[in-house]
Amino acid sequence: MSAPTVLFDAPGPRARRNTMIGTVVALVLLAGVVALALVQLGANGQLDGEKWGPLFNPGNRFFVATWSALGQGLALTLVAAALTLVLSMAIGTALAVARITSAPWYRWLVVSVIELLRGLPVVITIYFAARVLPELGISLPPLWYLVIGLTAYNCVIIAEIIRSGVAALPRGQSEAAYAVGLTRFQVLRLILLPQAFRIMLPALISQLVVIVKDTSLGFVIFNFSEFVRTARIVIQFFGGQEGINLPLQMFVAVALVFILINYGLGKLAEYVQRRSGRAGRTAAPPTVKVEAGAGAA
Q1: Residue 205's CATH number
Q2: Structure pTM?
């Protein structure tokens, strides 16, 4: 007999057989759709080597130039993602601490800021940074408008992730820290936040995946060529100068690059989770020095 699971009862022989039949039928239908799509693409000339060569054939005369241009756009995308992550972590941690330690008379202000930025689409925050800040006399390189817009959205998401990590910790840890005389800020800095970062690290790395994908929304910023816009510029070059129409091929290549980056980040999250789990089991408990008389009744 199959062992029961936590979320649902283990399927019996008939359910497993039906699941297997449904899976096979779905795979056959999917294979048919893929085959039909390939036939249609071949009939329209989209599978010709001339169109795929500039992207996937190192011997093609345009291969190096194409990937040099795309590499510049990808570098801007990765720089924007890295800057956004650093700023979002710093501001998000500050917001999480402010929400946890805020007094009732001003907690509504912190919560209002977090909920407002959480409710806005990220493209709106990017557009606001790119259009409104110059009107206010704040002139920055185009890269920073993207970073500011992404940071405004992602910092509150990270703040909620960190707050959830702190809330998930046993209350006994903070109560024991208060009992030996630590202040509320010391409890957060020495006891709660380090553990919250460790247990929520996979979620934080997963948010980095979202940040990398959201950099493609930089199209709303004038004169900023991130990865996707650079791909569009290369498409226009081939269509105008060489008479080669390759939007499908270009966006397949762009999609593959994003998939590889995000797959690597996902694997990094799994690795960090395994390492942090082992470290948490083997590490010795931290010791806190308390001055004489601290916490005395």
Answers
A1: 1.10.3720.10
A2: 0.78
